[in-house]
Amino acid sequence: MASYRDKKVITIGIVHELTGLSERRIRYYEERGLIFPERTTRGTRKYSFSDIELLIKIANKREEGVQTNEIKKDMQNERKKKNMHDGIIQGQLNAHFKTNSRPNIK
Amino acid sequence: MASYRDKKVITIGIVHELTGLSERRIRYYEERGLIFPERTTRGTRKYSFSDIELLIKIANKREEGVQTNEIKKDMQNERKKKNMHDGIIQGQLNAHFKTNSRPNIK
DNA sequence: CGTGTAAGGAATTCTGACACG
DNA sequence: CGTGTAAGGAATTCTGACACG
Fold first, then answer.
1. Could you tell me where the beta strands, DSSP code E, fall in chain A?
2. Which of B5, B14, B38, B55 to mutate: most A Cβ within 10 Å?
3. Chain B, 67-96: which CBs lie within 7 Å of strand C?
4. Which fold has domain B4-70?
């Protein structure tokens, strides 16, 4: 995991080129907690391809009139749903192997 | 193909961060025809992840004392070998299906 | 609330050149 | 030949703020 898709290496200018979103909007969505670029040593933002895909989804929601607040909640719910699903899988695995998740790991 | 690995979206500063190579060297390898970044509308270079991997290979060769000239020839030979191999495969496919590569495509 | 814009400073990138070896 | 460096200009990015609605 954490392949090319998730490596944060793209500057905001290129993100703008790729998405058509203004730099203002891109920064604003970060301010609202929808997206989390990393920073270079000297402070310029770095985005990943998956950030770019997320930005496009966000922009589409905004076009439908959804507020950033709502978008954020939706994203958190997706997260929760995914984690629940993973929990179920893990539960099934545990039951199958009749063992704890991390036995005897100090 | 032409997935994330091959999209040219990384500025030279980030390439430097990722490879440790000086910007001077990165530009020089372009000058010698070893690497081919694209440009933004206003002229700044953009590299792909595969460019970065290639740069690392080039740097390793250079450490062994191989000249850029040699490295370039080696790269061209790899290309040729690969194309020959593809040709063989294609020939086998053609023989197998007793057909031309692109029949009746206008 | 979401986005545009003007503002000023700091950091980035570019090219062509000189240096050394 | 391969790489460093200083030079000057142009473009980028950053933050905080005002505007409108």
1. 38-39, 45-46
2. B14
3. none
4. Multidrug-efflux Transporter Regulator; Chain: A; Domain 2 (1.10.1660)
